[in-house]
Design goal:
Helix content is 64%, strand content 3%. With 374 residues, it is mainly alpha-helical. The chain starts with a helix and ends with a helix. The C terminus is likely disordered.
Length: 374
């Protein structure tokens, strides 16, 4: 009956925003069409009051972490007690292959050679497959191991999981319309599905590989190994509360999308943590209770780092995405408004939480698989 539970969960996650649309009195057809109906960008004036409040909120959240990292003194840590301790390995041949393919893919993505016209819209996937090879190679050089080599089957399983994962965010975007694609209008439904699915399959492997690489840097991990303990409840009722909050905000995406659009990134994370807490003690929440913030800081940083590359390579590509962020669409860095990069922080955490939730039936398995804690 496990499949039935997954079916009910999928029905719940998909249905809640649609219920919000019905409560708002809007028709459902535009939200169910495939390929997605192109949307005319909504025009929202920049609210500098709202912009300033978000800046203050973001800085208030980030400041303690930056302060801790800058002032923390690194002490030698025995390699036996440190996940991913650096070693002196040779950079692997497949890492060099990743560099060569990345440079070639980058050139092809940002240029318009006539002979490459028939493939010009398909440069996203080669870029990110090259990135995955390169980052795994960097991890191998620093630590002598990487998930791609050590647990190849699990790593390859991330690709189909990633495709379904990002398709869900594409679905949620139908309600908030914060991004749309340019250069894909000529695709029919079948072509669009395969084009998008193959591209989406690289998201989770990229973030997971980046996370593993970042773990090998003591400057990033040591400050948060033993920090402030957070007295979060351990009861299943706390999980139900998180699940309820995530569900209500998903419902709200269909009712008030112009206001609640940031919850596109937060609601699924609340639901993931809620389900983990209900089924067992959620590993990330358990780590926070123990004062270990690495399962928060490192995935968030991995999401932000990948986000920077996503936006940079997207900027000059033929097939790319553009944004319309209500009330804060200002100070663009590439196509993304500056404050929009904050969304990559919870997104990185979301990626690792999903991988842990799906691939690890026990806390021990999750920690070993993702190296979240030693």
């Amino acid at each position: 009956m496990q499949w039935f539970k997954w079916f009910l969960l999928a029905l719940w996650l998909i249905g809640l925003p649609l219920v919000g649309v019905l409560l708002a009195g809007h028709p459902l057809a535009p939200f169910l069409a495939f390929p997605p109906i192109p949307q005319s960008p909504h025009s929202f004036p920049v609210s500098w009051v709202w912009f300033g409040l978000l800046v203050v909120l973001i800085l208030a959240v980030l400041a303690p972490f930056l302060y801790r990292m800058i002032l923390f003194s690194i002490h030698p840590i025995p390699s036996s007690s440190m996940t991913g301790s650096p070693t002196s390995q040779r950079f692997p041949w497949w890492g060099w292959l990743g560099i060569c393919l990345l440079l070639l893919s980058w050139i092809l993505a940002w240029t318009r050679f006539p002979w490459f016209h028939f493939m010009q819209s398909h440069t996203f996937t080669p870029l990110w497959l090259s990135y995955i090879l390169l980052v795994n190679g960097l991890t191998w050089k620093r630590t002598g191991h990487c998930w791609m080599v050590g647990q190849t089957k699990k790593f390859l399983a991330l690709f189909p999981l990633s495709a379904g994962f990002w398709w869900y965010f594409e679905y949620l975007n139908r309600f908030v319309h914060t991004w749309h694609y340019v250069g894909t209008q000529e695709f029919n439904a079948v072509t669009y599905f395969w084009f998008a699915t193959i591209s989406f399959s690289t998201v989770l492997p990229s973030v997971a590989a980046t996370h593993e690489w970042l773990q090998s840097f003591p400057r990033l991990s040591a400050p948060f190994r033993q920090w402030k303990r957070v007295p979060l409840p351990q009861q299943a009722s706390f999980g139900w509360a998180l699940l309820l909050l995530g569900s209500l905000t998903l419902l709200g995406l269909g009712l008030w999308p112009e206001i609640l659009y940031p919850f596109l990134w937060i609601s699924p994370l609340l639901i993931l943590f809620g389900l983990q807490q209900i089924q067992r003690d959620a590993p990330v929440l358990a780590s926070l209770r123990a004062g270990d913030w690495r399962p928060v800081t490192l995935p968030a940083l991995a999401g932000l780092l990948c986000g920077g590359f996503w936006e940079m390579w997207n900027f000059y590509s033929l097939a790319h995405w553009e944004y319309t962020i209500p009330y804060v669409h200002s100070m663009q860095v590439f196509e993304m408004p500056l404050l929009g990069y904050a969304g990559y922080l919870p997104f990185g955490l979301e990626c690792l939480a999903l991988i842990q939730f799906v691939t690890s039936p026990t806390k021990k398995g999750g920690r070993e698989c993702l190296n979240i804690t030693p």
